[in-house]
Request: fold
Amino acid sequence: MTVAIIGVGLIGGSMAIALKEKSIAQRIIGIDTSKEHAEKAMQIGLVDEIKTLEEAVKESDLIVLSVPVDAVENLLPKVLDLIDQQIVMDVGSIKEPILEIIKDHPNKVRFVATHPMWGTEYSGPQAAVRGAFEGKATVICEKESSDEDALQLVEDLYSKLGMQIVFMNAREHDVHVAYVSHISHITSFALANTVLEKEKEEDAIFSLASGGFESTVRLAKSNPGMWVPIFMQNKDNVLDVLNEHISQLRKFKACLEKGNEEYLKELIENANGIRKIIK
Amino acid sequence: MTVAIIGVGLIGGSMAIALKEKSIAQRIIGIDTSKEHAEKAMQIGLVDEIKTLEEAVKESDLIVLSVPVDAVENLLPKVLDLIDQQIVMDVGSIKEPILEIIKDHPNKVRFVATHPMWGTEYSGPQAAVRGAFEGKATVICEKESSDEDALQLVEDLYSKLGMQIVFMNAREHDVHVAYVSHISHITSFALANTVLEKEKEEDAIFSLASGGFESTVRLAKSNPGMWVPIFMQNKDNVLDVLNEHISQLRKFKACLEKGNEEYLKELIENANGIRKIIK
Reply:
């Protein structure tokens, strides 16, 4: 089939590679508002051609929206206006606001809301990688709102990419990603700012940075163009988690202030429970 | 030479492997208060024999203290009491309190205070790894307080392990590690507790956990026996950094509460500055 990928960056580009490699798409059309990204995507062979949105939608069987979540809000109704029987899917990190926007659109049944749980701290077409989605989880939201053939095609696609499909409603999804993705990014950004603040005073500090520091601060390299809209659209859930996180940090603070070794040990032992969950 | 390693866990065990591999030690004597750890260390070949502290110190040229920092406080004066011309080094994460304790000891010139900047979230002899220290930084503190031959031997040892030596005074060291190591562990422990709190309510949450989450929460698997004493001994510095970190998190919170996208973007762009520092 022919697939149009709107936004040929990290996710769209990696999706393009996978769709070709698994012979899911025979032809991939790229669309990108950044001329530079579009040219780069052609140059490194992510897409077969670059077209306008209108042309691309017309010539495709499946349209994949892989743009920042604020752009999805504008773009999705526009794409649904343009389609006939084509299938549309997104890969964005937030689901409730997007589904709300199209809830009265006559073509909304052609849309499948998805979120493959993969990413890196890099962005742009040159950040696209081979084998990106293999073995990871992907969420399909509100599947009962989509036409059966649309849902089937998207399920087949993700299965062929080697992903484990999890079904959820949009509300659940948005709460869960606040916990397992968004808060990690906020703590990482804040940690980078904490340390960079100090670095102004002390030049030598980073010669000591070891692997532990690097892994907790790695996500702080992530792109604001992607993350500002995610945090804003998932504001309430992210605030809930952030408040909980600050209150957890305050427990550590209280232990240190009071010299309470027993409780500190308890907090760490509790945190060790994460071993059950991540290998 | 013969090296005594007191505490044959993650660091001591990895050191034992490296000392043998680089032909720095011909014979390694292990000492461990845990009979289980001592037996395991023999069984997997980390050490050549297990002896009592007194025997081991007597028969060794170099004594390496690789026990939790609260144990170093008790053990170091005891070892210095036992030595004649032997050289003693530690590998602990905190330096000021330890140097304070031995400041009037007649044998303190035989001691070299060091901190190789390497570790993992695992512990015990079975956590020891080959090639652990290669390419990493190591700190030597207050080098002017050690005898020249002692300092020379320790410098040679770290050079042969492939480590880059950084000299610092103890006070500087303790401040820096609060920023580049201790705070990462606290945020990771607190993040684990935040998410585990939620998990009580929602079982499905972790099916979605992806690489970003895993890297920020990995350190939360670290051992309280090691970290409680580190945090307690470096309390003032860790509290400084923790307060700064909480205030950085509050900036993110304020942005979300007020819907201030511009400032949120600014905070993230500032955090992106970490790219200059970690690759």
User: Anything to note?
Assistant: Residues 2-169 of chain B form a domain with the Rossmann fold fold (CATH 3.40.50.720). Chain B has two domains: 2-169, 173-276.
